[in-house]
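Instructor's aside before we start: the two examples that follow are unrelated to each other. I chose them only because their records fit on one page, so don't look for a connection. First example below.
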Amino acid sequence: MTEAIGMALRPESVEDWFHFVPTLLENEGWQIACECPAGRLLHRTSPWGGHLIRFSLRDILVHEPPADPSHLFVRPEVRDWATRRYPELNEESFEVVQQLAPGNAVVKREVAWRFNRQCNLFFCTFSGKATNNLLFQTTSATPGQVRQMVRRNYPQQGDSVILVQCLSALLEAVVVARPQSPSTFALDMIMKVPSVLPLWASMHFEKLLVSGRDLTEWFVNRPGITEMRRQDQQYYVILTIQSWRRGRPLLPATAAEVAAGKDVTTIDAGKRDGLSSWVRYHPAMVGSNGFVLSEYLSVFVTRIGEHATFYQSLDGQELLPYQCAIQRADWDRVRGRFQCAYALQKSAYRRSRGGAAAPSVQDSMGPRFTDDHSLDVLQQRLDEATEVKTVVRKTFIDVDEPSQFDSESDQQRCRTLSPVRHICGQDLVDVR
C-alpha cells in the first residue's frame, strides 16, 4: 500500500519537487558522500520511494550569459530546432516527438553522454536495480522517451530549471541553475534513483563529480548555444485580448448555427469572404466552464479554414485567461488571414452589442501569469491517492490520524508532517 501511494504521488512538476523536499537546495536533510574542488555529492532517501542523488556545483562559468539568467536553459523544442538546422551538433540524436506546451515536450534520444553512462553504472547497475533506465540510457534499439520541461524564475527570480521524467519508469531528475554573478552560476542536479548510494564505490565519487562538472560547463557553453538562447527568447508570441466589456467575442457561424437562427449577427462586409454570419462564443462550445483565450482562438482559426496551436501556459506557468501563447512561425503563417477575419468580427460585435468598442487581439504584450496554485493541485492529488484526510498548508500537511492508531491518545486530533514523508510511510531523518 505504501509503495502504491508513493508511486501515485510521483512529482509531476518542478514545484512538486520543492513541495516534497523543501530543503532540496539546502544542507538540511542531506548527507555528504564526497566533497572536492569540483563540487559536492550528496544523498538522502526520496519521499516517493528510492533515493535522491545530488550533484552540487558552484562557480560554473558561462562565457556568453543571457541578459536574463532565467533563460540559461533553452526549451526542448528550441534544442530540436537547432539540431535539425545543425545536425552535426546532435550528439544525442535528440528529437521532440510530442509538444505538450511551450517548454514542455516528450523527447527521444538514442545516445547518452559519458556522465549519464557513469551514473547508470553506479546508481543502477551496481545497485542491483538494473532496469530499462531511460534517464541514463546509453544505446537502445528502441529510443528512450522522456518528458522535459523548462521552468523559469522558480523557486527564486533568475533561476533556470530543467525537469526530466522518464515515461516508462519511476526515474526523474531536476536541474536548478541559480546566478551567482552575471557570468557564473550555482548548479544542482538532483536525480531520483532506485536504491541507496553505493558507498563502497566512494573512491570513484570524485571522478564522477569532475565528470559532472565537465559536462555542465560544456552544456552551458556548447556550440550554437548563443543562437539557441536568442531563438528561445523569440520562439513564442504572446497574444492578448482586450476591450470586451459588452460580452464575449464572436465566432464565424457554422451552417447549423445559421439554420438555427438564434443570436446570429449578419454583416454585409463579410459576404466576400464567407464571413457574413457571426455568433457569440461560449466556453461550453469546447466543454469548458470559463473563457480562456487559447480555446477561443483555436475555434476561431478553425472556422476560418486555418490551423494553429494555442497554449494556455508558458514554461510551466499558467497564463491569465485573456492571454495565450503561439509559436512565432505559426503566428506569422496565420496572422494575415486572422487579422482580416478579426476585423470583420469587430464590425459584427459592434452591430450586435452596440457602442464603439470591440474586442481586439494584440501581439505586443509580455506574458502575465496566474497565481501559483501548485499546492492546490498537490492537495487534490493527495486526496485522490489516499483515504487519509489531508490539508496542505504551504510546505506541510495536517493529517487526521485514523482511530485505530489513537488508542493511547484519543484527545490528539492531528499532527503536522512534511508533505510526502507521512504519505509514503517514511520518517526521514535529517542528516547534516
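Example two begins here.
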Amino acid sequence: MTSVSELYAYYLAHPVVSTDTRYLPKNCLFFALKGANFDGNTFAAQALEQGAAYVVIDNLDCQVSARCLLVPDVLQALQDLANHHRRQFDIPVIAIGGSNGKTTTKELVSSVLSAHYPCHSTKGNLNNHIGVPLTLLSMPAGTEVAIIEMGTNQPGDIAELCRIAQPTHGLLTNIGKEHLEGFGNLAGVKKAEGELFDYLAIHGGCALVNLSEKYLPKMAQKVPMRVGYHRVEPLLPEPGIIEVSMIAEAPFVQAAFLSDEGPRVAVTTQLFGQHNFQNVMTAIALGIYFKVPASKIKTALEEYQPSNNRSQLLHYQGATILLDAYNANPSSMEPALQSLCAMPAQKRIAILGDMLELGEDSQKEHESILRFAAKLKIDQIILVGKEFGKTPYARVGALHFADNKAAKHWFDAQIFEDTAILLKGSRGICLEYILAS
C-alpha cells in the first residue's frame, strides 16, 4: 500500500491532479474515484495510455503497471493528500459557507484579497468532498491567503471539509431554507452550517460574522475569537466592528466604508440587488480585516463582473435580464424577486424554475413563493417545472411550462420593449437555456 507521505512525493514530482479521464493533463496524478454509476479503477490503463504519470487505485485487480499506486480507499487518499499539502502552508485559510451567495461572496473576497496578496481560491463551485481537496491540491507555493468555499447537503459535510482544509478563519453568508431533503428543517440547516463555527471554536480560529444577518450573531457566540461587521446608516466608527453603508441597490449596488486614513470610500459595483450588498459588505469587511488598502478594495469590487449565471445583468432584444439561474431555494428566491421589482422598466416578468431538494416541504415552499411573487409589482409570472406545476398558479394569472424547452418556445415568440426579466431557478432546471440562440 502507498502511504500518504509516499503519495506526496509523487505529487510533488507531478503536481497536477485529475479525477476524470476526459480532462487528463500530461504527467498528472489520476485518482480513480468511484461513483454511483462508474468505477474509476477500470480506467487505470486508459489513464496511463492518455499520459497520466501515475494512477491511484484501490482495486488490486486493476494494477496493470508499477505506475498504479494502490491505496485502501482512493477518495480517502485524495482527501488525506490534500490535507497533507494544506499543512505545508502556515497561512490564513478562510472557509466560506452558508445557504446562499457562497460563490459570489467567495469571488468578491478573492478579488479583494488578490489585489494585495498572492491568493488562492476555489474555482467555480468545487465546494464538496472532492472539490475542496482538488482546490487545496492546486494551491501553489507562495500562496499567502487561501479562500475555500464549503458546500453541504447533509449533516457532517462541513465538519469533514474543515478536517481536510483546516481553516483558520471562517464565515457563513446567511442561513436559509436549503437542501431540506437532507436537513429536515431550518434548525437542521443551522446545525449543519454551524459545523464551521464548531471547528473554529475548537481549534482557536476566528469567525467573521455578518451582524446584520439573522441567526449568525447567536450561532457565532461559541467562537471566542470573532470579528463583526454590519450595515449602518450613517457611518460612525464603532470600536471592534467593521461598518459599511449602502448608498444604493439599483441599478447597481453602491456601498461606502471608512478607510484607515479616515475618508469615506464609495464603491459602485456591477452587482444588482440588496442581497448582493451583503456579499459586497462581506468582501469589504475581509479586505479591511486583512489590511488591504482602501483604494485596492474599491478597485477590486468595481472591476468585478458577475458570470456563470449568477447575478448577471444582460440586454436581450429590448429587455434587461437579471440572470440568476445557477441555483435557487426559498431564501434566495424572495430577494431575487425584490430585485426584479427595483429594476427600472415599464414591464416586469419573473421566470421562475423549480426549487429542488426541498423534500416534504417542496409543495408548501413553492406555493409560498408563488404567493410572494403575486403580491409584488410583477406584470407576468412564468413558472417552469413539475413542482411549480402543483401550485394554484392559474389563480394568480401565472403561466406554467413543464420544462425549459417549452418555456423557451413561449419566450422566443414574445416581443420585449422596456421590459425587465428575472430568470431564477435551481441548477437542474437550466433556465439559461431559454436565452440560447
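The mean pLDDT is 94.
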